[in-house]
Amino acid sequence: MSAQIIKEKVEQAKQFLQEFDVDCWITFARESQINGDPMLAFLTPAGITWHSAFMINKDRSTHVIVGRYDVPALDEMGVYDKVEGFVTGIKEKFIEYMKKKNPSKIAINYSKGSEICDGLTYGMFLTLYEMLAEIGMEDRLVSAERLVSAIRERKTPAEISNMKEAIRITEEIWDATYKWLKPGIKSIEVADFMKAEAAKRNVGLAWEPSVCPAVFAGLGEGEAHYAPGEKPVTRGEILNMDFGVRYNNYVSDMQRTFYVLKEDETEAPEDVQHGFNIIVKAVQDAKDSIQPGKEACEVDAVARQVVVDGGFEEFPHALGHQLGIFSHDGTALLGPKWEKYAEKPYQKLEENMVFTIEPRCTVPNRGIATIEEMIVITKDGAEWLTTPQKELFLIK
Amino acid sequence: MSAQIIKEKVEQAKQFLQEFDVDCWITFARESQINGDPMLAFLTPAGITWHSAFMINKDRSTHVIVGRYDVPALDEMGVYDKVEGFVTGIKEKFIEYMKKKNPSKIAINYSKGSEICDGLTYGMFLTLYEMLAEIGMEDRLVSAERLVSAIRERKTPAEISNMKEAIRITEEIWDATYKWLKPGIKSIEVADFMKAEAAKRNVGLAWEPSVCPAVFAGLGEGEAHYAPGEKPVTRGEILNMDFGVRYNNYVSDMQRTFYVLKEDETEAPEDVQHGFNIIVKAVQDAKDSIQPGKEACEVDAVARQVVVDGGFEEFPHALGHQLGIFSHDGTALLGPKWEKYAEKPYQKLEENMVFTIEPRCTVPNRGIATIEEMIVITKDGAEWLTTPQKELFLIK
User: Fold this and answer.
1) Residues B179, B182, B186, B189: what is their CA dihedral angle, to the nearest 10 degrees?
2) pLDDT reading at A376 higher than 90
3) Within chain A, which residue ranges are assigned CATH 3.40.350.10?
């Protein structure tokens, strides 16, 4: 991550400690290449190797303790008041620092309901707990869920600008793909083409390459699979792809729906067009319903109702998720109140959150119609970040 | 990861459950792109999104419960007896399964001392604990550290063959780099050259690209930094790089030492040659001392003594680490008994473990001499995986 964005996010964190009334926020992690806390991206420009503690305090002071070899990269960034290095172990320096600060409420990165706020491993929790127990502070620990959520969710202008550029590039790739597509091309070839277009533009993929893009090529194999396979683009069927790129660490995530015309067709048949229209309406109505202060699930309910009213089964997933440096980022979720979503659908919408909107319906004997757009929440509504798909893309 | 290696590792796991007397081993994770357990690479060919539980039992039965969209990829692999999918939440199916199996000892992925065995987050631990508490099984939980370590450390022939190919490619890149190097080239240009050589050969980098390779170009900036910068390759100084590639998910990790001749030199001066010779001896003596059954720290001590006897300060890090799908993998570590290494230096060496050997010394006013080789432990010793550096690479 760039030093500029780290600086912005650490400044935000200082404010949020006030807002959520926490004295000291500790990110405690090791070996970022293996199992680092997802919060580290906002705290260090490099990785960390040994036990590392990043302390940000309500009094606006900051302090980092890391292994000696991780000091220079952090030190030069100039974001933290002090960066201390150790050779043999973190314990002595950490305990000394905590005794000096003596915070009453200490927030750490764990959460049952939100994976993005759950970066502390159980082994590291035990290590931290035992160190704090030695100085009688172990009962001061609380979850940093709200704090971490706010840092990830309230996007700065620099973050939104990175996501806009990722979207611009993705839309170029949709155009190129639309021009190139023909019946008979296999799903895996579609995927390879889109990946090559991303590589040409020097951007990475937004998620795991084996399913970025995911390709849903009509019926049979095409319905069941994320991972693109041998199923060809087939006349009379719907085709769609789920794709995104990564620009300066920030991702896009979009889906587009294509219909593959039969030899004698010049437009999509009524059933396909109806399914597509319902999805367009579900996206638009959901976007129009967005307001800061609303519960996230209310927006999901709007789109879900449009799909059901259109005569389709409701989609077996949430309407939309937040994005950032991951394609699934943040806590608040435009989703139904299902067990697996925990408290996410109950979160309040806030200005500068970035969400996808992605309802879906299955058109019998045709495939899956789905569109995925991205929006940013404004003071009194939402703005498109993507150029919304309003017409079916027809393949001849 | 290939289905073949997953199949091998799941078979190993079944044996190890017997060896370590565990009834049921659960890997419990969610959103692998954000903070997945590092064990997932050996359990699924794709990622996972929602709460996912992988159960492997001492009775050799296996069972997986994942979100519905993650079912097909796992199902087709054909490794697990049963793959169940859910839409709204995992709890009901998980509790039903555990009640039926009723295991007495349940191992889960946490460890204070070994990050690679510490994949379970604290939030996920709480979720699992509360589900098990509902059926009175919460006190049956133990750490899977020994089990997970064995799965990662006892390499199969297919794993070793992938690492050999990664090393072969890395050695090609060392050769190309040696031929190309000249005084005046900046560290960042050295890094860009090596990265381009890897890209040409269609392999990824073994770790975080900003420090792969790490370039230590002599004095000043060159000594302090992992990350390559503006420091040029300078006559009269030592240059070294730390570099590895990734082939079929498995990595190499090597360091080579170069000396940059002054205009009037045809060989390295005595102080540089002495430092280099000490490192060569430290590597060789350490390798010769390896035997299954020894404590890992004994091997570190051999090399450390050679360096100190050679008149240098002892190196501020471990002599060597294991590798696999990460450049730091496994639990046992050829390291001193320092706090940050916890129990790792006390582990017993075993056949088929793959280690680096990487002692280092600082030659005053010249830079850092260091070599990093890779070895695999055999029934009665160790074999080179790399072609060991025995002569200084001289740059004219």
Assistant:
1) -30
2) yes
3) 3-152
| SS3 assignment, position A233 | coil
d(CA A212, CA A208): 6
Chain A to chain B Cβ contacts (< 8 Å): 164
A355 has pLDDT over 90 = yes
The token duo for A94 is: 């950490």
Give the per-residue pLDDT at A225: 63
**Phi, psi of A314, rounded to the nearest 5 degrees:** -70, 150
Task: Give pLDDT tens digits for A66-122.
Answer: 999 899 889 989 999 999 999 889 999 999 999 999 999 999 999 999 999 999 999
Residue limits of CATH 3.90.230.10 in chain A: 154-395
In A, which residues are within 8 Å of B210 by CB distance?
45-46
CA distances in angstroms from A384 to A125, A290, A333, B313, listed in the order given: 41, 12, 18, 60
User: Is the CB of B87 less than 8 angstroms away from the CB of A208?
Assistant: no
Residue numbers in chain B where pLDDT is lower than 50: none
pLDDT of residue A47: 86
- Cβ–Cβ < 8 Å for A349, A378: no
| Interface contact flag, B30 A115, Cβ < 8 Å | yes
**How near does any CA of chain B get to the CA of A209, in Å?**
10
Q: For the purposes of burial, counting CB atoms within 10 Å of the CB of A242, is it exposed (0-12), middle (13-18) or buried (19 or more)?
A: buried
The model's pLDDT over B316-355, given as tens digits with 9 standing for 90+, comes to 899 999 999 999 999 999 999 998 898 999 999 999 999 9
Question: Residue holding tokens 């294509």?
Answer: A258
Distance, in angstroms, between B86 CA and closest chain A CA?
A: 10
Residue A222: band (very low, low, confident or very high) from pLDDT cuts 50, 70, 90:
low
User: What is the CATH code for B3-152?
Assistant: 3.40.350.10
**Side chain identity at B135, as an amino acid letter?**
I
Distance from CA of A142 to the nearest CA of B (A): 12
Q: Which amino acid is at B87?
A: V
Kindly tell me if the per-residue pLDDT of A223 is higher than 70.
no
Q: Is a pLDDT exceeding 70 seen at residue A140?
A: yes
Helix/strand number for chain B, H first, E second = 11, 20
- The answer to whether the Cβ–Cβ distance between B225 and A50 falls below 8 Å is no
State the DSSP string of B202-257.
Answer: T-EESS-GGGSSEEEESSTHHHH-SS--SPBP-TTSEEEEEE-EEETTEE--EEEE
Do the Cβ atoms of B377 and B353 come closer than 8 Å?
Answer: yes
Helix axes A91-101, A122-134, angle to 10 degrees: 60
Q: Name the closest residue on chain A to residue B325, using Cα atoms.
A: A34
- State the pLDDT at residue A195: 97
Say if residue B213 is preceded by a cis peptide, omega within 30 of 0. yes
Mutate which: B70, B337, B340, vs A, most A CBs within 10 A: B340
- Topology given in CATH for the domain delimited by A154-395: Creatine Amidinohydrolase (3.90.230)
Tell me whether residues B327 and A33 touch, CB distance under 8 A.
yes
